[in-house]
Amino acid sequence: MVAGSSLVAATLFWAGNYVLGAVAVGQMDPLSLVVLRWALALVPLVIIAQLTERPDWRRLARHWPWLVALSLTGLAGYNLLLYAALEHTSPFNASLINAFAPALILLAAAAFLRQRLTLWGVGGVVVALVGVLVVLTDGALGDLASLELGAGDLLMIGAIVVWTAYTIIGRRAPALPPIASTAAQAAVTLVATLPFALAGGLDLPRDAGGAWSLVFIALFPSVLSYLLWNRALTVIEAGRAGVYLNLITVFTALATVLMGQPLHLAQVLGGVLVLAGVALTSRRPSAPPLADTVDAGGGTQARGA
Q1: Can you tell me where the transmembrane regions are (predicted)?
Q2: 127 and 138 in contact (C-beta within 8 Å)?
Q3: Domains in the chain: boundaries
Q4: What pTM was estimated for this model as a whole?
Q5: CA 194, CA 32: separation in Å to the nearest integer?
C-alpha cells in the first residue's frame, strides 16, 4: 500500500513537470529552466543521498564517464527538448508522445542489448505506435502520407529518443546509488549548461506564477519523485513499478481538464492505444519465458521527467 502510494505520488509530480513546465517556458527559455531546475535541486539531492545512502562520493566520481553520458542525455538533453517542445505543443500532447518511450526502449534494448522481443512486446509496440500516429494526425490516419509534423511534435519525438539513449546507457553503467547518482548527474548538468545560459543571458521568472512553477519543478519532479520512486523499488519489483508510469499521461489529462483546456477525441483515443500498447509490452507470460523482456520501468533509474 505504501509502495503503491509512493509510485502514484511520484508520477503525479512528474505529470506536474509537463503542466507547470508549460507555464515556466512562457517566462524562461528552456536552457535557463534546465539550469535553474537542477541548481535548486542539487543541494536537496545531495543531502537526501547523504542521509539515506551514505555514498562514497570519491568512488562515485571515478565513474565520471558514465555520469557525463547520463547527464548529457537524461537530465540535460531530455529536459531541454521537453521544455522546447512545450513552447509549441500542449502538455497533454507531449505526455502522450512521451508515453511511447517504454515501447521505444523495448526496441532499443533488442537492438543494442540483444534482448529478445516477445510476441506481446512486438504487439505492444505496434499498438502504441498506432496510438502515437492517431495523436500526431489528429485522428486522420488516412492523411499519414502527407503528414507534416509540428515543431513541438518533432522536439518531443527527439526527447524520447534521447531518453531511450539515457536508459540504455543506464543499463550498461555500473550499479550506483540511485539518489547519489542523480545528484552527481545534476552537478554535471549544471557545469555543462550554466556557461551557455550565462552567455546567452539567464532568464529568471517574471512573476509569482513563474517562480512557483520553477520551485515546484525543482523540488517535486526533480527531488521528491526520485526519492519516492526509489523508495518504492525497495519493496516492489521494477517491472510492476514501470506500469505506474502510465499514470503520468492520466494525471496530465486531468490537469488539462481542470485548467479548462479542451481534450480532443483523437487525443483520448490515441492515449488509450498508447497506454494499452505499453501495458502489452510490460506483460509477462504465465509460463517461464523463452526470451527476456525489457523492464518498462527502467530498472532503478527514475523517470527524470
Answers
A1: 31-52, 64-86, 92-112, 119-137, 149-169, 176-198, 210-229, 241-259
A2: no
A3: 2-281
A4: 0.85
A5: 8
